[in-house]
């Protein structure tokens, strides 16, 4: 049954992402190949497939699916124009808050809700400080996205927050080294950090899922 739900979630996420292709390109204001590759549809499908493994009920599943689609749009936009639009990021705050609050009320998971709020605050503050220290490396879009990802990872657990955050920086460093070695960028070139943050959060969630399964077994 879970597999069927995963497939259905993947299909729904992919269809929604595909339907948002034109608005995504208009919002980015670019005709970059990243926005014409269909990458966002594949990413949304992947995120949609994994979401049911993390969900307790329909409220948080719907929230995770919305996050999956939004992040699938943000990755190619950031790769194309080095920007994470507020029009996508900011609505994720109330959406996540409502979805997780409903889930907390349904499953008496108030501790998880408090941890999600704390995770959002911690990553928001952490990335804000980093942006102040190195504004060329991190933008306010990254800071705003950090709060959303912090809430998502915090809902799962502090190990997910730590793993997801570390994974983001490791992934970004690895990509930078590869691009430098290939002479595609220089040490002064900007590299979109949003994709690493999102993929890092995915790895953090996967780590939490594997860890929880191992502990339960």
Summarize the structure.
The chain is built from eleven helices and no strands. The chain has 217 residues and is mainly α.
Summed over residues and divided by their number, the pLDDT gives a mean of 94
Share in β-strands? under 5%
Report the major sheet: none
N-to-C order of helices and strands:
HHHHHHHHHHH
> What is Rg?
17 Å
What is the helix content? over 70%
Number of strands: 0
Number of alpha- plus pi-helical segments: 11
Number of structural domains: 1
Query: What is the straight-line distance between the termini?
Result: 21 Å
Global shape: globular
Q: State the secondary-structure class.
A: mainly alpha
Q: Low-confidence spans: pLDDT under 50, at least 5 residues? A: none
Polypeptide structure, described:
The chain is an all-alpha fold and 217 residues long. The protein has one domain (2-216). The protein has 11 helices and no strands. It has helices at residues 2-19, 21-28, 33-36, 39-50, 58-81, 86-89, 92-107, 110-133, 140-156, 158-181, 194-216. Helix 1 (2-19) packs antiparallel against helix 4 (39-50), helix 5 runs antiparallel to helix 7 (92-107) and helix 10 (158-181) crosses helix 11 (194-216).
